[in-house]
Amino acid sequence: MFLHIVCLLSLAVALPSNVATSPKPGCESTCGNLQVPYPFGIGIGSNCSMSSDFDIYCNTTDNPPRAYLTRAASPFEVVKISETNIYVKNWRQQQIVACYASREYFSLEIDYFANSPYTLSDANQLTVFGCDDLAIGQHLSSDSNYSAYGAGTSCAPYCESREVSGGTGSCPGNGCCQTSISKGKKFMMTRLINMEQNWQRRKLFSCSFLSLGMLNITGFTFRLSDLNDSTFLNKYPALTDIPLVLDWRIGSQNCSEMLNSSSFACKGNSYCDDSLAGVQGYNCRCMKGYEGTPYLSPGCHDINECKNSPCHSNGICINTPGSFHCYCPNGYYGDGSKNGAGCIRMPGSNSKVAIGASLGAGMGFLLLLLTCFWLLKFLKKRKNKKQKEEFFKRNGGLLLQQQISKHEDILEKTRLFTAKDLDMATDHFNESRILGQGGQGTVYKGMLSDGKLVAVKKSKLVDENQVEQFINEVVILSEINQRNVVKLLGCCLETEVPLLVYEFISNGTLFYLIHDDSAEFPFLWNMRLKIAVEVAGALAYLHYATSVPIYHRDIKSSNILLDEKYVSKVSDFGTSRSIEVDKTHLTTLVKGTFGYLDPEYFQSSQFTEKSDVYSFGVVLVELLTGKRPISSDRTEEERSLATRFLLCMERNNLETILNSQVLEQGKREELTAVAKVAQRCLNLNGKNRPTMKEVAMELESIKMSQTLSTSVETTFEGVRLLNAELAMLPDADYTWTSISESTFTSSDVTPFMTKTF
């Protein structure tokens, strides 16, 4: 143990010093003269801040540029951001100019920070200039009750009448008063009241002035006669540039409630600091001996205290994590501290002996460093090996071994990648490599050492449900061998979260192709029909051609990918389930995507093969209409695309909902036939829906009829023969090969999304 500690102390000398508090990587750090650290960020919706509460708008048209707090109800200029405070100013929202005339009082309501993480700081003061006035500041006792004002503060400036002519005011004192306000409030009512009648004398000066903010006016003097001028504050520059200090914090829960939460904001080498009692939220601060941004991974960094020479001039300083250590070299004694005993030369010490001793000590120290280096390397290697074994167990390795015993060909079809392989392939999981994010995790684009492009799926969380879904996806995809199902290349279990490696699909999702109006590629009707045939064939394969029927449970256009030749690939099997042959349904927690979800499954929690049929029906309607499954701009009855489509079919006005390009390119009878297939798929009674085998056969027949109608080499008898063969094919021998396979071929490069690098 002692050797290990000495090694850490020795190696700590080479560690880099800490960086100052900084913005999120890739984001601007300054706006004019203002430093903007994370969790704040410059830009509205730019993803540079922790949330929209901390967005800073930078007006670059000003010279120099000025920053503004966007979360307040009124625009406040930001002049400084500290560890727990933000300094803002909007002079019109911080002052009262009261030239009474016929009015008895003037008021100012501070309510600009409702529903935000900002509260008024006790660094602010209520300052009043005038005579014969009473200033009152009251806090709301409840954020939701604007009439329930609670305790507050007050002060009353007073002037001697003999000093009116040519008199001098002072703060605090003659013609001026100042009082502090309470901390942690968002709402405040300030009021300036004329006390002329109460003092039983005439008003000495025409106007009085109230300001709210951080103002140090000790020893400040002014001419009392200036209180007759409504521009009094502008005559004294020190009174027109007063910042309003706000406390800020994270979230609405305290530290004890957030410590075990996945959304806890405090990163490494930092601690959580609660706000005051009665104020929700917390701040993160670096531990002693550390500095940096505690809200950004990996957290705060060690400070190299040795740079500032904290030890005695003859002493030696060694930096340690969070601290430092001073000691004296050979020939000296003492504690090595600058403020302690220091280092005192030993009596009678010989310079040659000292040099020899120093050289010996240096060689010994070097040998010790080398020994420490190899020892730490060995310990790190053993620790990494043990950690990988723990990750393997936690990520479902034992569950996968059980599945291998049932499916011996799994490892023959998939490759076990190492963590190093995938870390290099994704450039250390760089954010610029992200292809997409979903409920199960994040997908990164990667390139293997052999130059092959892949997509790496990294789970978000590590829990039993996620692990079970991960292993389930490995087993399912390993058993599938179909050209229209995304290919699983391998997995990695030795990392903190489980990883899947797929073929890379280059042309994004079907959802993007259907709904992105900016897409330059013309989405023709024959291609829409081809994709429908391919997806139907893939689902029929999953339902009938695998050893155990597989229900996808989340069929939607965003889970259908397109390769470089626009061949469709069904993806995302994280929620899929296999079902015993003699069972008709699977009882589970309801999972799926709103708009595609089978209403019958939603009500009964019993997922059947007909539930996949319903979801496919919604995709088919998307292809026909070019519309989204859910439209928020329509009435509740017409919000669902499936409902609107069924109503059009019942009213025999299909053309009103079809896509204009589809109407132009498709034949009427062909479009009607496909629409009727979709109508049957969307039947609210699952028993009345066709099977995916029937759907695939019908769409294949429509596609084949379209092909034959444009070909002079294929006869009508050929159509009848192929339909007859499909109809006679038994379930056990049923395989799916699209007619279009002879025309379109898939390549091996290729899942997920549309970015290119």
Automatic annotation (TrEMBL):
One Pfam entry name: EGF_CA
Catalyzed reactions: L-seryl-[protein] + ATP = O-phospho-L-seryl-[protein] + ADP + H(+); L-threonyl-[protein] + ATP = O-phospho-L-threonyl-[protein] + ADP + H(+)
Keywords: ATP-binding, Disulfide bond, EGF-like domain, Glycoprotein, Kinase, Membrane, Nucleotide-binding, Phosphoprotein, Receptor, Repeat, Serine/threonine-protein kinase, Signal, Transferase, Transmembrane, Transmembrane helix
GO molecular function: ATP binding; calcium ion binding; polysaccharide binding; protein serine/threonine kinase activity
Membrane topology summary: Single-pass type I membrane protein
Residue ranges occupied by any EGF-like domain in the UniProt entry: 302-338
Transmembrane residue ranges: 353-376
Purpose of the protein: Serine/threonine-protein kinase that may function as a signaling receptor of extracellular matrix component. Binding to pectin may have significance in the control of cell expansion, morphogenesis and development.
PANTHER family tied to this protein: WALL-ASSOCIATED RECEPTOR KINASE-LIKE 10-RELATED, WALL-ASSOCIATED RECEPTOR KINASE-LIKE 21
Name of this protein: Wall-associated receptor kinase-like 8
